[in-house]
């Protein structure tokens, strides 16, 4: 009961490899965001544990979700290479698949990816490759992506600014970064929930290890400081996720 309440409030607020992390090389390159194997292991276990339920839960606000899908497609072209980080069980990648050439959809949770692959197979979608990887560990050559999607994930990262900078590097000039992010500091009820239940929820493993509480203004500033132009911004209500399309300027170096 408590677990459901916390997950609904914090995880869903927003929208909706070898698995032994200690054996893995999380160092990636010198620009990645380092985290210890133990922390990664906890993170993977949390998302693996909720993956099945997450995949079965209906989208919290279907009209807003559909609007975000439609708005994203305004920036797509059939030749595009798209990367999704934190793709969860793959619904959004599968929905966008007919509109682009290829999607590389990644997530830290092997269980989420297992469910995503099964969904893609059932939907006969063949231009999405699902891959287990943390964003911190992900290797993407600079200046190669037409679009990067990060939906309901930026507030769950230890260093979202480093990830935003990493995404900027991997995009081609003119490429777009599409995000939907819970900006919890703009909604007092979530600030209260986090202050009251956050430490306990984390200790009991009922909440992700990291839930950032920042404002929409801070998120926009992080994007523009990284070199992005804000092409589109929409939030259905102050307590709903903020949808942003940020563009890497044409003149930017790759
Ligand atoms: C709230 S869910 C969002 C899933 C999907 N994008 C959606 O909108 O339904 C967050 C997802 O991010 C993944 N995740 C969390 N931390 C991550 C990290 N550091 N790197 C990659 N994926 C991560 C989780 O496994 C989970 O699937």
Comma- or semicolon-separated keywords:
Rossmann fold, 7 strands, alpha/beta, binds S-adenosylmethionine, 254 residues, single chain, 18% strand
Could you characterize what this model shows?
With 254 residues, this protein is α/β, with parallel strands linked by helices. The chain has a single domain, classed as Rossmann fold (3-Layer(aba) Sandwich), CATH 3.40.50.150. It has helices at 2-11, 37-56, 62-73, 91-96, 110-122, 160-170, 188-203, 216-225; strands at residues 81-85, 102-107, 128-132, 145-151, 171-181, 229-234, 242-247. Helix 1 (2-11) crosses helix 7 and helix 2 packs parallel to helix 5. It is globular and about 45 Å long. The relative contact order is 0.16. Residues 11, 14-16, 43, 47, 85-88, 92, 107-109, 112, 134-136, 151-153, 156-157 line the site of S-adenosylmethionine (SAM).
Outline:
With 254 residues, the chain is an alpha/beta fold.
Order of strands, widest sheet: 3-2-1-4-5-7-6
Q: Give me the strand/helix succession.
A: HHHEHEHEEHEHHEE
N-to-C CA distance: 48 Å
Query: What global shape is seen?
Result: globular
Bound molecules: S-adenosylmethionine
**Architecture per CATH nomenclature, i.e. the level-2 architecture:** 3-Layer(aba) Sandwich
CATH superfamily grouping: Vaccinia Virus protein VP39
- The count of strands amounts to 7
Biggest beta sheet summary: 7 strands, mixed
Tally of alpha and pi helices? 8
Domain unit count: 1
Overall residue-averaged pLDDT value: 85
User: What's the CATH topology label?
Assistant: Rossmann fold
Strand content: 15-25%
What is the alpha-carbon Rg in Å? 17 Å
Q: Which structural class fits the helix and strand makeup?
A: alpha/beta
Residue stretches low in confidence (pLDDT < 50, at least 5 long) are: 1-10, 12-34
CATH class: Alpha Beta
Helix content: 25-40%
């Amino acid at each position: 009961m408590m677990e459901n309440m916390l997950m609904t409030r914090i995880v869903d607020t927003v929208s909706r490899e070898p698995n032994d992390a200690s054996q893995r090389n999380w160092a990636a390159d010198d620009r990645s965001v380092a985290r210890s194997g133990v922390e990664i292991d906890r993170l993977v276990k949390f998302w693996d544990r909720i993956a099945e339920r997450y995949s079965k839960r209906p989208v919290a606000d279907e009209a807003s979700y559909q609007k975000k899908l439609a708005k994203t497609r305004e920036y797509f072209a059939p030749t595009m290479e798209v990367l999704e980080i934190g793709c969860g069980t793959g619904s959004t990648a599968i929905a966008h698949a007919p509109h682009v050439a290829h999607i590389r959809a990644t997530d830290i949770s092997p269980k989420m990816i297992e469910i995503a692959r099964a969904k893609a197979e059932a939907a006969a979608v063949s231009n999405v490759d699902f891959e287990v990887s943390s964003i911190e560990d992900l290797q993407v050559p600079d200046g190669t992506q037409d679009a990067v999607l990060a939906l309901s994930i930026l507030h769950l990262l230890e260093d979202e600014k480093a990830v935003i900078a990493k995404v900027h590097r991997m995009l081609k000039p003119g490429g777009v970064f599409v995000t939907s992010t819970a900006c919890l500091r703009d909604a007092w009820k979530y600030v209260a929930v986090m202050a009251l239940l956050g430490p306990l929820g984390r200790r009991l493993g009922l909440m992700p290890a990291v839930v950032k509480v920042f404002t929409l203004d801070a998120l926009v500033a992080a994007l523009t400081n990284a070199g992005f132009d804000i092409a589109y911004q929409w939030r259905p209500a102050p307590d709903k996720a903020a949808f942003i399309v940020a563009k890497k300027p044409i003149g930017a170096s790759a």
